[in-house]
Specification:
With 206 residues, the protein is α+β, with helices and mostly antiparallel strands. The protein contains 7 helices and 8 strands.
Length: 206
């Protein structure tokens, strides 16, 4: 089984392939190639493109947004000491695409892939375009949450924009016990600057 899976991964490395193309490249039957490829999609080893072909999945391929965000999130975590995350919207939920966790023993953290209902938290309020959050964003450039989703935890988020549309948010999350004034007052400027850096990197890559 592992040999067949490895053969399929090799067959789509740097390209895409239909089930019949997978069969030709691997020497497997079309039905076997198709069945294995569909199973690999479920586990994130492959993904389907718009034409129905198979490509390497998210376990191997990061999006341009993730590539731009990861070093910025890491630097944000290192300079603030708190957990830095990238969130996107999918329907009525938000999904944690990246999380660079605080190195403190007491920290706010969620695993990559975590889903939360909108509009909970500072990122949720932004991605849901909550009226009060948009006013806060216009006034300050960031949105904060103080124990609104989880008692004892706070966060501050800023949007990542593309063509004036919010495509993601950068969130810095922390225990309120380490806050001096508020999440936004302490870290809002740093989070806003991080979001702007990602926007610039994305624009340069386009």
């Amino acid at each position: 089984m592992l040999e067949r899976i490895a053969a399929i991964l090799d067959a789509v490395d740097g390209t895409s392939a239909s089930a019949s193309e997978l069969a030709r490249r691997t020497g497997l039957s079309v039905s076997t190639s198709h069945r294995l490829a569909l199973s690999m999609v479920e586990y994130g080893f492959l993904r389907r493109n718009e034409s129905g072909g198979f490509q390497l999945g998210h376990r191997f391929v990061r999006t341009a947004l993730e590539n731009a965000a990861l070093p910025v999130l890491t630097e944000l975590r290192d300079t603030t000491g708190e957990t830095a995350q990238l969130w996107i919207r999918r329907g009525d939920e938000r999904i944690c695409q990246l999380s660079v966790d605080s190195q403190h023993e007491l920290k706010a953290t969620l695993p990559e892939g975590a889903r939360l209902a909108l509009p909970a938290g500072s990122s949720g309020r932004l991605l849901a375009r909550e009226g009060e959050a948009m006013e806060e964003l216009e006034a300050k450039g960031w949105v904060e949450s103080v124990g609104r989703r989880t008692p004892g935890l706070g966060s501050v988020s800023a949007p990542v924009l593309s063509r004036n549309q919010i495509i993601a948010t950068i969130c810095l999350a922390m225990p309120l016990s380490r806050i001096k004034e508020s999440p936004g007052s302490d870290f809002g400027t740093a989070v806003k600057q991080a979001a702007h850096r990602i926007e610039a990197d994305l624009a340069q890559a386009q």
